[in-house]
Inverse folding.
C-alpha cells in the first residue's frame, strides 16, 4: 500500500503527519505500507492507494477527483493524533474494499 | 644530485666485490655509456663526502673505495631519499649523522659534521635537534663532551638504534630476507661488519632451525627483525660491546624455553663466526624471541592457522604464573574503569600476559619498545587508551618500573581487541535501497554501504513510488535505506544522503545493531568506549531540538493581537538567533495566507515555517507561548497558544528535529507542562527530558 502525505511545502507538518500515519499503520497491524511526502500539485498526479492531508487540503484534493476516489482521501484535524488517523485509515480501507 | 639512476649505480658499485666497467653498468641499466659517465660525475662528490673515493681505472673499471660500511648504508639512504625528491634532504642528513655517531664512540666535532655534510652550522643545529629526538625516543642521549657530539645509552638501546637504521636503510621490514638480492645483502653485511664468508642467511637459517622447538611459530615479519637483532649482536660483540646481563630481574628468563633456544642460537653462531659470545647475550636474544612470540601468538595469527582457542595451551607452555596474575590485575583495573568484567576474559588475560612477560623484562633491562601504532591507537581508542594509562600506573607500582606510553599503547590495543570481541558474530541484515528514481543514486549508495556496514546485505533497490509493491514480493527485508523521505510501516527506515556522512552511517550502524540483536548482548557503551567518541556530540547530528531551542529562542507569555502578530513574534526569535534572515518572517505569514493554516498540527499548537530558499541560514527552531490564544483564518475551531517556528534547510537534520518536535507534541504531558511552566529554563528542561525519553533512533520499531 502506498500512502501519500500531502502538505503545502513538504517540510514540516507533513513530516509530523507521516510519523503519525506510520504509528497508525503499526497500530492497525499493516506491514510494508510506504508513506511518502508530496505537495498538492504532484499529489494529484501520483498513483497511490491513500492520500492523507489536513482537512483543508483534503477538500481541495477531493474537488479535483472522481467521486469514486473520494474515500481514498483522508482528512485529519490533528497531525499527532494516532487514534484519529488509525480509525480514518481503517474506514478508508473498508470503503475501498466494498467498492472493489 | 641523484635520482633513481645514480642510486642504482651506487648500489651496483657498493654491492660489487670488485671494479665494474662503464659498459657493464650501461648494459645493466639499459642506458648509454655516456649517460653512465655523467651519472658518475654526479656521484663523485657524494662518495667523497662520505669519506671514500670513486676510482676510474681504464680497462679495469669503476669502484668505490675506502668507504666504511656505515657510510655505504648512509650513501644508499641519501640516494634513496634523493631519488624520492631529488634534493639532499634533512632526513638523509640526519640518518647520516646517526650512522656516524653510532659508529664513532668518541664522538664527532660540529666542524667535522659540517664538512662531511656540506652544510652550515645553523643547518647542522637543526639536524642535530631532530637526531636528538630520534635518539631520545630510543632512550639514547645525544651529549656534547669537550666539543664532540656523542651518543650515550645502554648497549641494548644502541643496538635498537642500529636495527632501526638498518630496517630504514633496507626497507626490509616484513619481507623475507631470502628474497633480497645480492646487492642488498652485500650492503647489509658490510654494514654489520660481518665477513664475506658468512651472510645473513646463515643467521636466518640458524634462528629458524632452533626456534622449531618452540611451541609456536614465528611470523616472517618478526623473523626479519630477529635476524637483524642477532646480526647486530654479532657485530657489537665482535667490537667488544656486551649487553648488561646483570640487569635486575633479567634472570626471570631462567628456565624459559626461549632462553634455551637463544643459547643454542648463540652457540651455533659462535662456532660459525669463530666468535666467543658471552652468556649474557643469550638473555638479550631470548628477550627478542619473546618479543617475536608476543607478536605471533598475541596477535592470534601465527601462520599455522592456530586459532585463539589454542592460546591457552600455548600460553600455559611459556607463561609464568606471576605474569598471568599481573595481567589479571591489570585487566581488573581496566575493567573496573570500563564497568566490564575484563578479568574473566581468558583470551585477554593470556594475550596481556604474553605481552607483559617480555615487555616487563625489556623495560627492566632498559630496552625501548617502538610502537608504530601508538598514534593510531590513541586516536581510535582514545578512552581505552586513558583507561590503559591509569591501569598502567597500578601496574608500574606492582613491577617497580615506569610504563612508557609506547607500552600503554600496546596494552590499550589488547583491551580494545577484547572489547571488539564482545561484539558477537551477527546475522546479516537484509536491506533495500530506495531513491527517488530507483537507479543511479541507489547504486552509488549500495557501494558505500557494503563497505561501511559489513553485516548489511543489500538485496535490491527500487524507486520510492514502487517500494510498497516491491516489498510485497520481498517479505524478508529487515530495513529500508532511502535517499528520500519515506516511512514504511513495520520496517525501520534509515534516510541517508547519496554519499552518506559519518553521522548518518553511525545511525545506520545503530539500527543494524538493534535489528541483529547485538544491542542486548553487547555492552551498550561499546561504541563510545572503543571508539572514544562518547564526548563527540556530532555523532548524533550537529543539531537536535535541545541544541537549537535555547533561552534565546524561547519566549513565554507573549501578547499577540492576532495570528500574524504571533507568527511574527516566533519569527523574530529565529532572526535573533541567526537561524534566518528577516524576509523569512514575512514568508511564514505569506505561507499561511497562500496555503491555509495547515500548519496547525495539534490542538492549540501551530508550526509556522517557510521554505529553505526563503532566507534560512541554518537549521533552527523557536517557541512562543501566548498569554492569550489567537485563531487562524478558517480554523476558528482550534485556538492557538503555542507556536513552534522552525527553519528547515532541506537536510536530514531538519527531519530529525521535526521528528523530535513530533515526539514532544505527541506526549500530552510534556505539552501540558510547557503550558504551565513558569520559566524558560523549565521549558528547556522539559524539551531535554522529552528527548532523553525518546528513542535515539526514531526510525527503529
Amino acid at each position: 500500500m502506498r500512502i501519500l502525505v500531502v502538505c503545502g511545502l513538504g517540510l514540516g507538518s507533513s513530516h509530523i503527519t507521516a510519523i503519525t500515519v506510520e504509528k497508525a499503520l503499526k497500530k492497525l497491524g499493516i506491514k510494508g505500507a510506504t508513506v511518502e511526502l508530496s505537495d498538492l500539485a504532484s499529489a494529484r498526479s501520483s498513483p497511490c492507494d491513500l492520500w492523507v492531508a489536513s482537512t483543508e487540503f483534503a477538500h481541495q484534493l477531493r474537488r479535483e477527483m472522481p467521486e469514486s476516489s473520494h474515500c481514498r482521501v483522508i482528512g485529519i484535524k490533528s497531525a499527532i493524533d494516532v487514534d484519529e488517523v488509525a480509525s480514518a485509515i481503517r474506514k478508508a480501507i473498508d470503503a475501498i474494499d466494498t467498492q472493489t | 644530485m641523484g635520482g633513481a639512476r645514480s642510486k642504482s649505480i651506487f648500489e651496483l658499485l657498493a654491492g660489487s666485490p670488485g671494479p665494474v666497467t662503464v659498459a657493464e653498468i650501461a648494459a645493466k641499466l639499459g642506458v648509454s655509456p655516456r649517460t653512465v659517465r655523467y651519472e658518475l660525475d654526479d656521484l663523485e662528490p657524494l662518495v667523497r663526502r662520505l669519506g671514500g673515493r670513486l676510482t676510474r681505472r681504464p680497462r679495469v673499471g669503476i669502484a668505490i673505495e675506502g668507504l666504511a660500511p656505515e657510510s655505504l648504508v648512509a650513501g644508499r639512504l641519501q640516494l634513496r631519499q634523493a631519488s624520492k625528491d631529488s634534493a639532499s634532504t634533512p632526513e638523509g642528513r640526519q640518518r647520516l649523522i646517526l650512522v656516524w655517531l653510532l659508529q664513532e664512540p668518541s664522538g664527532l666535532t660540529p666542524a667535522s659534521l659540517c664538512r662531511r655534510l656540506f652544510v652550515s652550522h645553523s643547518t647542522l643545529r637543526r639536524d642535530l635537534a631532530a637526531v636528538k629526538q630520534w635518539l631520545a625516543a630510543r632512550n639514547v642521549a645525544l651529549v656534547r663532551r669537550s666539543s664532540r657530539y656523542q651518543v650515550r645509552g645502554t648497549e641494548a638501546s644502541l643496538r635498537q638504534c642500529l636495527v632501526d637504521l638498518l630496517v630504514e636503510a633496507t626497507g626490509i621490514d616484513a619481507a623475507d630476507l631470502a628474497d633480497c638480492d645480492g646487492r642488498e645483502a652485500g650492503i647489509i653485511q658490510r654494514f654489520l661488519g660481518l665477513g664475506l664468508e658468512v651472510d645473513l642467511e646463515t643467521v636466518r637459517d640458524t634462528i629458524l632451525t632452533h626456534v622449531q622447538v618452540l611451541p609456536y611459530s614465528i611470523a616472517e615479519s618478526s623473523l626479519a627483525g630477529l635476524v637483524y637483532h642477532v646480526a647486530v649482536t654479532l657485530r657489537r660483540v665482535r667490537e667488544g660491546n656486551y649487553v648488561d646481563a646483570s640487569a635486575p630481574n633479567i634472570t626471570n628468563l631462567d628456565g624459559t624455553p626461549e632462553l634455551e633456544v637463544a643459547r643454542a642460537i648463540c652457540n651455533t653462531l659462535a662456532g660459525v663466526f669463530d666468535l666467543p659470545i658471552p652468556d649474557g647475550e643469550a638473555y638479550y636474544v631470548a628477550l627478542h624471541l619473546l618479543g617475536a612470540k608476543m607478536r605471533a601468538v598475541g596477535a592470534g595469527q601465527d601462520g599455522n592457522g592456530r586459532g585463539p582457542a589454542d592460546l591457552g595451551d600455548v600460553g600455559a607452555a611459556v607463561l609464568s604464573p606471576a605474569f598471568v596474575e599481573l595481567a589479571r590485575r591489570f585487566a581488573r583495573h581496566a575493567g573496573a574503569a570500563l564497568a566490564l568484567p575484563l578479568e574473566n576474559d581468558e583470551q585477554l588475560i593470556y594475550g596481556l600476559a604474553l605481552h607483559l612477560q617480555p615487555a616487563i623484562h625489556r623495560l627492566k633491562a632498559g630496552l625501548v619498545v617502538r610502537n608504530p601504532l601508538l598514534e593510531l591507537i590513541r586516536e581510535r581508542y582514545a578512552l581505552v587508551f586513558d583507561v590503559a594509562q591509569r591501569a598502567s600506573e597500578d601496574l608500574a607500582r606492582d613491577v617497580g618500573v615506569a610504563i612508557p606510553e609506547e607500552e600503554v599503547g600496546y596494552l590499550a590495543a589488547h583491551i580494545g581487541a577484547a572489547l571488539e570481541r564482545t561484539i558477537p558474530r551477527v546475522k546479516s541484515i537484509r536491506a533495500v535501497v530506495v531513491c527517488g528514481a530507483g537507479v543511479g543514486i541507489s547504486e552509488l549508495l549500495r557501494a558505500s554501504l557494503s563497505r561501511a556496514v559489513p553485516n548489511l546485505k543489500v538485496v535490491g533497490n527500487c524507486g520510492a513510488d514502487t517500494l510498497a509493491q516491491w516489498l510485497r514480493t520481498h517479505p524478508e527485508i529487515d530495513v529500508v535505506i532511502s535517499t528520500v523521505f519515506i516511512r514504511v510501516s513495520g520496517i525501520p527506515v534509515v534516510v541517508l544522503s547519496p554519499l552518506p556522512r559519518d553521522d548518518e552511517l553511525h545511525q545506520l550502524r545503530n539500527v543494524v545493531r538493534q535489528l541483529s540483536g547485538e544491542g542486548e548482548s553487547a555492552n551498550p557503551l561499546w561504541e563510545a568506549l572503543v571508539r572514544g567518541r562518547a564526548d563527540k556530540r556530532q555523532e548524533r547530528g550537529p543539531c537536535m531540538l535541545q541544541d537549537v531551542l535555547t533561552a534565546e529562542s524561547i519566549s513565554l507569555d507573549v501578547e499577540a493581537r492576532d495570528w500574524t502578530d504571533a507568527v511574527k513574534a516566533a519569527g523574530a526569535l529565529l532572526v535573533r538567533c541567526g537561524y534566518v534572515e528577516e524576509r523569512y518572517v514575512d514568508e511564514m505569514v505569506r505561507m499561511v495566507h497562500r496555503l491555509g493554516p495547515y500548519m496547525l498540527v495539534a490542538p492549540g499548537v501551530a508550526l509556522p515555517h517557510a521554505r529553505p530558499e526563503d532566507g534560512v541560514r541554518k537549521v533552527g527552531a523557536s517557541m512562543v507561548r501566548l498569554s492569550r490564544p489567537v485563531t487562524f483564518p478558517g480554523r476558528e475551531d482550534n485556538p492557538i497558544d503555542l507556536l513552534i517556528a522552525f527553519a528547515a534547510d532541506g537536510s536530514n537534520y531538519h527531519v530529525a528535529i521535526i521528528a523530535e518536535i513530533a515526539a514532544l507534541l505527541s506526549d500530552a504531558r510534556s505539552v501540558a507542562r510547557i503550558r504551565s511552566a513558569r520559566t524558560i529554563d523549565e521549558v528547556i528542561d522539559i524539551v531535554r527530558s522529552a528527548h532523553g525519553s525518546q528513542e535515539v533512533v526514531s526510525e527503529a520499531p
